[in-house]
Amino acid sequence: RVEVALKTIHTHLFSDEQELELLRREVLAARQVVSPNVCRIFDLVEVDGHELVSMEYVDGATLSDLLRETGGVEIQRASDIASQFLAGLDAVHRAGLVHRDVKPENVMVTRAGRVLLMDFGIAKEAADPSTGSVPGTPGYMAPEQARGEAVDARTDVYAAGVVLAELTSGGGLADAASRKDLWRRLREDPPR
User: Fold this and answer.
1) The pTM is what?
2) 48 counts as catalytic
């Protein structure tokens, strides 16, 4: 017996059937990603007219929760989290996928210390040219993603750099204002 988590696909957020079908294909492609550092996608199922993604159940906390609770992590633990997180991102890229929403809320740390990248290619609002919206989270978006241009693995690497900056921020990032200040500084005066 395996515990799974179910995530609902909100089909009403998609402007047409073609965008929804693209999402379905990405979910099915995500099943091919096998890594101890990526939340395993099992299947796309329909229950009572609702589309659901069945995935590995992860017992732990998000990296965002961890940073909020601790105010920061010491360098050895940060190194361990970063190496596992980046190994998961590499597995996603080797499968030919782009996550498009790398952020601390999509990185889980289990009670045993295993780090998993979550939610790639699923449960994201499709780009809507009429509103100018693009999938992703503004503070972590690479410039090309924010402009609504084509994205590739480099887009995720940019976002991973922002996550790592948060992870290693000495002062801690306990609230939204301190996170936004870090994002602003990274864009205005990028580290060398």
Assistant:
1) 0.80
2) no
